[in-house]
Amino acid sequence: MFISATKSIVCFLLFFFLLFTAEASCFLRHQLYRMQSFSFMDIQTFLKAGGWELASQNPVAETTSGFGFEKSVFTKSSGEMLAIYSSKSYGNIIQLNVSASCFQTISVNEFKNLSRKLINEQDRVIKEYREGNQIIQLVEYATNKGDGPEILIFNEDLKNQVKSLDQWFGATPSNSRVSTGASHSKSSSGASKGEIYEVVETQPNPPGGMQGWNRYLIENLRYPTGARRMGIEGTVVVVFVVNTDGTISDIEISRGIGGGCDEEAIRIVEGSPKWTPGMQGGKAVRTRMRLPLSFLLGDEPSEAVPQTTSRQSD
């Protein structure tokens, strides 16, 4: 029986490896799910066959619940990273940083037509997929982190046991804002002059708060015909300044997807009613905001949470 079981594992790993290499080092959906439940040794064998190297391994405890893991980090020469948080009773948490092209391949080829939950929170957009007890999140960040998008894999049991998954894998504000060069300015009164704050005590708010902002998106956001025809979807990141009188200026596209979506995002922000300005030291100040806007085929306009960036400008 032992020989038979060993043979089955070897055959599975060989099949796993062939599929892996066939996709030019990108993972298939079933491979991602299986890594969540397989033993560390099986995952290590699979990853090494795909050119991954074990960079570090050490125990780690989740601070809120005291739930213990063995953390192993694998890397590739291309700069990709995969962290495995292994538990004896509940399977693994996988944190995977891949290239933008690989992430796009996985998103389109493996998950595009599947049912999913869309989550917009702070500076990241999450597409969450479920298969039974297992959960996969495809995470895109509003800022350029430098290490590409992330794929997070866990299960419902781990989600219930580990109370601070967001502490581990939550969005980390970038130390700088990266512009792609596309920009659009909207003039305003003298409120457009003066220091621009990146972090404030009270951040600006759209009229009606976030509920009002989401109503505004539903009523006004239009999916560009060209983007729909070409099958373009994704997240546009808009950066803008909320002036002391609530007007909007200095609109830029930090990350675009083309097909007219960038221009539509600018139109939406530019046409927004006056905001409540940010406050610092009891005074209204000019505040730079960052806003991810999702364009997803077949969806209603999604919720988007604007936020300040992470440092004060010079």
Please give a structural write-up:
With 314 residues, this protein is an alpha+beta fold. It folds into two domains: 2-169, no CATH class; 183-308, TolA/TonB C-terminal domain, CATH 3.30.2420. 29% of the residues lie in helices and 31% in strands. It contains nine helices and 15 strands. It has helices at 2-22, 29-37, 40-49, 100-111, 156-161, 165-169, 209-220, 225-230, 261-270; strands at 53-61, 68-75, 81-87, 91-97, 117-121, 124-131, 134-141, 150-155, 183-184, 196-197, 234-242, 248-255, 278-280, 283-295, 307-308. The strands form two sheets. Strands 1-2-3-4-8-7-6-5 form an eight-stranded antiparallel beta sheet. Strands 9, 10, 11, 12, 13, 14 and 15 form a seven-stranded mixed beta sheet that branches. Strand 6 (124-131) and strand 7 (134-141) form a beta hairpin. Helix 1 (2-22) crosses helix 3 (40-49). The longest helix has 21 residues, at 2-22. The termini are far apart. Mean pLDDT is 75; it is low at 6-24, 170-190, 300-305 and 307-314.
